[in-house]
Design goal:
The complex is a heterodimer of chains A (about 260) and B (about 325). By secondary structure, chain A is α/β, with parallel strands linked by helices. In chain A, about 35% of the residues lie in helices and about 20% in strands. Chain A has a six-stranded mixed β-sheet, with helices on both faces. Chain A has a four-stranded antiparallel β-sheet with strand order 2-1-4-5, with no helix packed on it. Mean pLDDT of chain A is about 85; it is low at about 250-263. Helices cover about 75% and strands about 0% of the residues of chain B. The chains are: A alpha/beta (about 260), B mainly alpha (about 325).
Chain lengths: ~260, ~325
């Protein structure tokens, strides 16, 4: 099967700092792939390159075998949906109004949503189980509810690829497990999932493959067990092997997350 | 309807009271001349329409700027756009008083340039250092606005009080609605209606922009283009409003805020509603301003400042506590 996303020797650099260099990997259709690495290693940057918000400094990025630069903004918005880490809405938009924004790339210029668009919005809300909160203001929702609204906006875009930036951050254990189940369901329905993740135990349990970005600009991609090897994690997160063990083995989950607070 | 009623009632009130029936009579048969009809047709009615145009323009600009800056505090007066327009207009009044280009007086054109330039400067100051910060924008708007108003005042210095330019400027600085000629009324009405019509297609994109500039971009909105169009249209509306009423503050803040509570935050509905209610609000406010202490008139700008100032502080406080508005 051809790669749905392919990076060939991609480099991204700000004027003062190179984020990554020589990054190569391929994501196959319907794959569920985790993007891991320490803060600042370029996880968000990589996601933004895929959805066209940032341009790589050099190298080739192919979507569906086609160079990223030949995709129009609108085509790209219908193909890849970014679910950002933070979504801050200054006005009291209702949940259904926000989810309808996912239809924007599909609308004709100056036109409002059609009956079909509204149907897609309805299905998106149903898929993440937020029909019951459609009338509520986004600003009044809890962290887990907000996360589901953001995913619904992405679903309303009807994308082939969904890019999620740390979707489980600030969620309590129950909401994290629910969210991962939701992503697996979407994945089974045909959406390719690429998610930046911090929690390696969740990665091990839910993702078939992983891409590891390291602070020195190097990167490793492959099946999850191979990427989550202690020597690679040591290099990526700059910690001693001993303190890594429980993250890699997937045990002592409760100990790990005991101090988290529900957002 | 409410708007029409306010026009009729407001026309009857004033230093010379005209009965309601007579007002309607004059409006329906303007040919029947009389003292009352002279007062109504040459003074009161143009002023009422001017007040309506000012209120509509400022409120619509408020909606546009609040959507663009994603902040309910953005208002042409707060951001310094009104100050820029006033200074531009003042420069025109004193330096090139009698020129006109394509039907527009240099006053209106320089007022537009002033508003546009101010918005550009305030925007880049707010953006300085990479990230856009709303506090920076409000501070920059305040600082620039104060500077511009000082410059406008300075233009008056050394001129005699009877100079018509000085009188116009004083009225602008106080926020007094002028009594335009019917030609002016016509030109400004057409220009304002055109600007509002151009703004309507942008309102849906302003809704998307509420999710953040980057997210909107990800959803296919051309953020750079929208930004330029919104600032340009807002500057036109501000310039038109300032050329009629000078510096009238907080209307563009107050009216959209109340409407957002009633109608919700959808800009597509908010923009026309703000134009209508803004017109209504300022007609009422101006009527109060010119009749409450009759025969002395107080500038309507003073009145809106007394109502709008506390409202601004209230919103600022809300903003600190949480995003829900």
């Amino acid at each position: 099967m051809p790669a749905i996303i392919e990076f060939r020797n991609v480099r991204f650099a700000y004027p003062q700092r190179t984020i990554f260099d020589g990054l190569s990997f391929g994501v196959e259709e319907r794959e569920m792939i985790a993007l891991i690495g320490p803060n600042g290693a370029g996880k968000t940057t990589l996601l933004k390159i895929v959805c066209g918000l940032l341009r790589s400094t050099s190298g080739t990025v192919l979507l569906q075998g086609r160079g990223l630069e030949s995709w129009s903004r609108r085509e790209l918005s219908c193909y890849a949906a970014l679910v950002p880490q933070h979504l801050d809405v200054p006005f009291a938009f209702r949940v259904e109004e926000l989810v309808a924004q996912g239809r924007v790339p599909h609308l004709r210029r100056f036109a409002g949503p059609s009956a079909r668009d509204l149907q897609v919005v309805e299905r998106a809300m149903q898929a993440v189980d937020i029909l019951g909160m459609r009338e509520r203001a986004y600003s009044d929702l809890s962290g887990g509810e907000r996360q589901r609204v953001k995913i619904a906006i992405g679903l309303a875009q009807q994308p082939k690829v969904m890019l999620l930036d740390e979707p489980t951050q600030h969620l309590d254990l129950g909401r994290q497990i629910e969210l991962m189940a939701l992503l697996r369901t979407l994945n089974r329905r045909g959406i390719t999932v690429l998610a930046a993740m911090h929690d390696l135990a969740l990665v091990r349990e839910n993702f078939s493959s992983a891409i590891l970005l390291t602070p020195d600009g190097a990167s490793f991609a492959g099946p999850t067990p191979e990427v989550l090897r202690p020597e690679l994690l040591e290099r990526a997160f700059l910690v001693a092997r001993a303190s890594l063990s429980r993250h890699v083995s997937g045990e002592s989950l409760t100990h790990d997350r005991g101090d988290r607070i529900d957002a | 309807m409410l708007l029409l009623a306010s026009v009729v009632v407001s026309a009857g009130l004033g230093a010379v009271r005209v009965p309601l029936a007579a007002v309607i009579g004059v409006l329906l048969h303007p040919a029947n001349a009389g003292d009352a009809s002279v007062i109504l047709l040459t003074i009161r009615l143009p002023r009422i329409i001017a007040a309506g145009l000012v209120g509509a323009g400022l409120s619509a600009t408020g909606v546009l700027f609040q959507g663009l800056f994603r902040n309910p505090l953005a208002d042409p007066f707060v951001l310094g756009a009104s100050g820029g327009a006033a200074l531009g207009g003042a420069v025109a009044v004193f330096l090139v008083p009698s020129l006109s280009i394509a039907g527009f007086s240099t006053t209106a054109l320089l007022a537009f340039a002033g508003a546009l330039l101010t918005m550009g400067v305030v925007w880049s100051l707010a953006r300085a250092g990479g990230k856009f910060a709303i506090e920076n924008m409000l501070l920059a708007g305040f600082a620039i606005g104060t500077m511009l108003n000082a410059a406008t005042s300075a233009l008056e210095l050394g001129k005699e009080a009877t100079n018509p330019g000085v009188r116009l400027l004083t009225a602008w600085l106080h926020g007094e609605v002028s009594v335009p000629s019917w030609t002016q009324v016509l030109i400004i009405t057409v220009a304002e209606a055109a600007a509002l019509l151009l703004a309507i297609p942008l309102t849906r994109q302003l809704n998307t922009l509420s999710l953040g500039e980057e997210y909107a971009e990800q959803l296919g909105v051309r953020v750079g283009r929208i930004r330029i169009l919104v600032v340009a249209i807002g500057s036109v509306l501000t310039a038109l409003a300032v050329s009629l009423g000078g510096l009238i503050g907080f209307v563009g803040l107050l009216v959209p805020h109340v409407l957002r509570i009633i109608l919700g935050p959808d800009h597509f509905r908010l923009l026309p509603a703000a134009a209508l209610c803004g017109a209504f609000f300022l007609i009422v406010a101006d009527t109060v301003a010119r009749t409450a202490f009759a025969p002395t008139e107080i500038p309507v700008g003073l009145l809106t400042a007394f109502i709008g100032g506390p409202a601004f502080l209230y919103l600022l406080n809300q903003k600190k506590r949480g995003p829900s508005l």
